[in-house]
């Protein structure tokens, strides 16, 4: 069969992205686990035009909640052309009934066991409506199909070594989406990390782990990193703050070429961290923890969330200074989003605080889909935008770039330069995160059909994976 795998996307910034940094791994992983007899193409709606007139036998769409409207629009258009359209990913896993209105079949949970069965059923003309994927054994997973990635992505080597996370933060779906903590054999991961059929040296050099919490199982990560040393790569990952107390691990991270770690710091409020169930974070030790990592020349990227019950406008805006103060090299600033399948959704739903008439566009991480406790939804949005503008002002961005240039190893300093430069340029161009209440309903965001092709935004500006 001919299969088109599509990663749906909706532009999140006013003018899209200026540069496409890192791709999702989902499409190229699904392509890799598709039996070889099938002919697969992978489209990323953020950079590719989608061929509605495709001659594929099967269209398979993956999407996050914030991009559901794009996925549903695509499915509707493909089905008008008589195509069989299936879907999977975090949104359909929690919104089965809704998704079944748009797709011929859905795969919930992980695909490794269910996807081959679905494909066989399509061939036998016996497609069922729901395929329930189970947490897979990660031994023997193939190398992602990097050859199918569009050239627009700057970094290409995205890898997954583990699945799951032992923590249970209230806003996160990982504990139910990828239950348990599972590992790929180190030798399999090293094969992927060594893949070098890329055009540019940095695409061969940089390895970006798309794991939930790569460092949590110490014997495993230490074995993996020892194996990484001879590969001479620059690598990045997500991790939890406990790594800062493990100097042996940090030394090994440095030795094996780590240039960046993403920490979910989330908040500077004690009550907010309790609301988040983020017991692994201690505010009093943020600065010290960041310094321990930076001492090894590794850049600290960190996520912060605006909209906990104890947040007010000022506490949100204050984060711009607080994150500078603790030494963060690249901040990622989002708004609390009540994703289905999370404890925070259950709480807000029970309290009647989900704004039911806000569609999935409001679930892109930059919009408000619930009623905050200490302010109106508009005030939360305004406070987030004020935080974003202050954090990515030229003054703050340059300070971070210069600090990184003088204190971090080369790859980490490049990272700080590119990422801060990327956001500062957006700030200067006024390319702000889109306020969906001003766009939704205009028909501009939800995947326009242009000459039989679908784009993600009005101007067809390439919209990128943003971090
Ligand atoms: C890597 C990652 C990122 C990366 C890459 C993003 C990307 N587009 O891929 C970065 C850091 C950029 C990122 C950003 C964001 N992310 Co993110 N991210 C992840 C993470 C940690 C791993 C995803 C992954 O690649 N897994 C490995 C691949 C191989 O597996 P997979 O994608 O899960 O797909 C499997 C199954 O779902 C299924 N499947 C998926 N699609 C399909 C399609 C078909 C047809 C089939 C059959 C099966 C199938 O099969 C796959 C194999 O089993 C997950 C957490 C998690 N455990 O899922 C969060 C997660 C996906 N992210 C999430 C969110 C919210 C975001 C942001 C909106 C955050 C923000 N505030 O800005 C942004 C969006 C940015 C963007 N432009 O896409 C949420 C999504 C929740 C939801 N319901 O939508 C998750 C689940 C984390 C959470 N908070 O709960 N993210
Ligand atoms: S530590 Fe990260 S991945 Fe783990 S549950 Fe919390 S937010 Fe999710």
Give a short summary of the structure.
This protein has 467 residues and is α/β, with parallel strands linked by helices. It has helices spanning 26-32, 68-80, 90-94, 96-100, 114-123, 174-177, 186-194, 201-205, 218-228, 247-255, 270-276, 286-294, 313-325, 343-350, 377-391, 394-407, 410-429, 436-439; strands at residues 2-7, 39-44, 50-51, 58-62, 84-88, 105-108, 130-132, 158-159, 162-163, 182-183, 206-209, 234-239, 258-266, 299-306, 330-335, 448-450, 453-455.
Describe the model.
The chain has two domains: 2-136, Cobalamin-binding domain (Rossmann fold); 146-429, pyruvate-formate lyase- activating enzyme (Alpha-Beta Horseshoe), CATH 3.80.30. Helix content is 36%, strand content 16%. The chain contains 18 helices and 17 strands. Helix 9 (218-228) links the parallel strand 11 (206-209) and strand 12. Helix 16 (394-407) packs antiparallel against helix 17. 50% of the residues are buried. Residues 442-467 have low confidence and may be disordered.
